[in-house]
Each structure stands twice: as structure tokens, then as C-alpha cells.
Specification:
Length: about 180
């Protein structure tokens, strides 16, 4: 009973690594890159007895000659090939059980994956208060866009030149003089 749940967990881990990074993957076949990732994330690669090269060699051994992926059965055979090498002091059955325990229930981790930049250039480039020239006219003081008013030259029929500072003061001057 415990063995069947362990094998189910092994199959779940296989499927999670099989679909990692590939939107079109079905979860039934594991490619070489994801096989190497599985071995690295599950700590099958220890850098001493099992290296990345060993993992690649085992992958090439168990896959079909014309294929670029391995199935779940070939995945189990690959783990069987790596088990004695990874756990040298144990018998073949104990080593196989130990390597299954390393993989069971694991999923790909995303440590070291590039994150979206939140500071620096992006903030500086999208801060409307720092815009100059004609772009400055497209936003109000709060940074909200003015829409059509900010994009197009709207004609004001006031009789004054566009940026005349004393616009609207003529009537007050003329009336004040009379």
C-alpha cells in the first residue's frame, strides 16, 4: 500500500517536471533539460559521485535512439541506473528506494529566476512629473494623462496669443482708464 502511494508521488513529480517551462507539454514525456533540472533540484546530482555529465549520459542511454524525450518507464530505468552510483554503500534495492525518496513529491523550484525590475529605470521613465518639453503638456500635476487635450492643439478663440500672460486684462485696463 505504501509502495503504491510512493509510486504515485514519483509519477506526480515526473509530470510536474515534464511540464515545467513548456506550455505545450502533456506531462507524459520528459526532455533532457528538465531531466537535468529534476536531478539538480532533487539533489541527485551531488557534485562528487553523480555529476551533470553522468545525468546526461544516463538520459542518452535510456531514451530511444531517435527520440529526444523519455517516458515514465524510461525515467524509472534512469533512476535505477543512477541509484547505485549515488548511494554507493547501499544495496541496489536500498539505493533505489533512497533515490525514489529524493524525487517523490518534489516540484521544480524557481530559485535564481529573473524577477521583474521594480525600481530604477522603470520608475524614472514612467514618472510623468519628470517629463519635459511637449510630453510635459500631456499630463496634469498628479501625473494623470489629459487625453485629447494633451495631445492636440486646441484653438482658443480669445483673441490673445497662446502663452500671453496678461490674457483677459484688456477689459479691466480700458474700463479703469475711463
Amino acid at each position: 500500500m505504501a509502495e503504491s502511494t510512493d509510486m504515485e508521488q514519483l509519477l506526480v513529480s515526473f509530470k510536474k517536471f515534464a511540464i515545467h517551462g513548456d506550455t505545450k507539454a502533456t506531462g507524459k514525456e520528459l526532455n533532457g533539460k528538465n531531466w537535468a533540472k529534476l536531478c539538480k533540484d532533487c539533489k541527485i546530482i551531488d557534485g562528487k559521485s553523480v555529476t551533470g555529465t553522468d545525468v546526461d549520459i544516463v538520459f542518452s542511454k535510456v531514451k530511444q535512439k531517435t527520440s529526444r524525450v523519455i517516458t515514465y518507464e524510461e525515467f524509472r530505468r534512469a533512476l535505477e541506473d543512477l541509484a547505485p552510483k549515488r548511494f554507493k554503500g547501499q544495496s541496489k534495492e536500498e539505493a533505489l528506494e533512497s533515490i525514489f525518496k529524493l524525487v517523490e513529491g518534489k516540484e521544480p523550484n524557481n530559485v535564481g529566476v529573473t524577477k521583474v525590475a521594480k525600481k530604477g529605470a522603470v520608475d524614472r521613465l514612467t514618472d510623468a512629473s519628470k517629463y519635459t518639453g511637449s510630453h510635459k503638456e500631456r499630463f496634469d500635476e498628479t501625473g494623470k494623462g489629459k487625453g485629447r487635450e494633451g495631445r492636440e492643439e486646441l484653438v482658443e478663440n480669445t483673441g490673445y496669443v497662446g502663452s500671453y500672460k496678461n490674457a483677459g486684462t484688456y477689459d479691466t485696463k480700458v474700463k479703469a482708464e475711463k
